[in-house]
Design goal:
By secondary structure, the protein is α+β, with helices and mostly antiparallel strands. About 30% of the residues lie in helices and about 20% in strands. It has helices at about 1-20, 25-30, 40-55, 55-65, 95-110, 115-125, 145-150, 205, 255-260; strands spanning about 155, 170-175, 190-200, 215-220, 230-235, 240-245, 250-255, 270-275. Strands 1, 2, 3, 4, 5, 6, 7 and 8 form an eight-stranded antiparallel β-sheet that branches. α4 (about 55-65) packs across α5 and α5 (about 95-110) crosses α6.
Length: about 280
């Protein structure tokens, strides 16, 4: 009798495992708890599942990003856990556009909450003179254009997609307003030439050249006078869809990229930069 009961239980277990294996990737992530509801302990349970199901980094990053669709939007909610910005170094309960990209990247590199937190420090902060990275407000990568032109985990590939003559360029000093004053109190500024894809070059043919998942940063010309280039960032997946934390939607969403970029009232942005997510620095 005990042997029969054991065999029945074993058969049920094998059947459940088999059914899990037959789930599509989208069905699999739909069966997970919503990430914005999770405790640190639950995140510790789930991140290894992503590592096991998606051994390829780019695929894992894509499905972590899709899993986070629906995350409530709140702006400027990552900090250093000390003054002047006491917000958490990493969090899953809310997100803004940069928070979405960097949190997904940190999670895709990790097996646990604490490991992802350590990776977030590596991703979100610049090294000091000794090469060490400390989570300090003044060492944070505050400017997307600065980060994607210098950080080894978010690498600008804009100039590989079109000839240089097809791109627009901008000479700007990041963090310097037209008056010469700093926009943010960082004791830092950076003169840089930015090359970006103008609106008339943003087409389905351009998207077809992208990797299966790529970062996208949106150029906002009215911010130039403040020493800022970008007004938004997100991810393009499957060379078609935009995954981003949307202020207007109030949450992280997936939508057709070209429909988002070219609404009926006209484009909100002046161009884009494309960058590649890399696992290792």
């Amino acid at each position: 009798m005990k042997v029969t009961k054991y065999l029945i239980l074993l058969n049920v277990f094998v059947t459940l495992i088999s059914c899990q294996d037959k789930l599509s990737n989208q069905e699999w992530i739909a069966g997970l708890p919503q990430p914005w509801t999770l405790s640190q302990e639950k995140v510790d349970e789930i991140l290894p599942l992503f590592q096991n199901r998606f051994p390829d980094f780019q695929t894992r990053l894509k499905y972590i990003a899709l899993w986070r669709v629906g995350t409530p939007y709140e702006i400027f909610k990552l900090g250093e856990e000390v003054e002047p910005d006491t917000d958490p170094i990493i969090r899953y309960d809310v997100s803004d556009c940069t928070g979405h990209n960097l949190t997904c990247l940190a999670a895709a590199k990790s097996y646990s909450w604490n490991e992802a937190r350590d990776h977030m420090i590596d991703i979100h902060y610049k090294p000091d003179a000794s090469g060490q990275k400390q989570p300090l407000y003044k060492s944070r990568w505050h400017y997307t254009a600065d980060r994607i032109t210098q950080h080894p985990n978010t690498v600008d590939i804009t100039k590989t997609l079109l000839p240089l003559t097809a791109l627009d360029s901008l000479d700007i000093t990041l963090n310097q307003k037209a008056s010469g004053e700093e926009f943010l109190d960082l004791d830092w500024k950076r003169p840089v030439t930015i090359h970006y894809i103008p609106n008339h070059q943003i087409t389905a043919e351009l998207l077809a050249k992208l990797p299966a998942i790529a970062g996208v940063a949106f150029v906002k010309p009215k911010y130039f006078k403040m020493g800022i280039v970008m007004g938004h960032e997100g991810m393009i997946i499957d060379r078609k869809y935009l995954l981003h934390a949307s202020q207007s939607a109030g949450e992280t969403v997936k939508q057709d990229f070209l429909d988002y970029y070219f609404p009926q009232e006209g484009a909100f942005f002046g161009g884009i930069m494309i960058f590649e997510f890399r696992e290792n620095s």
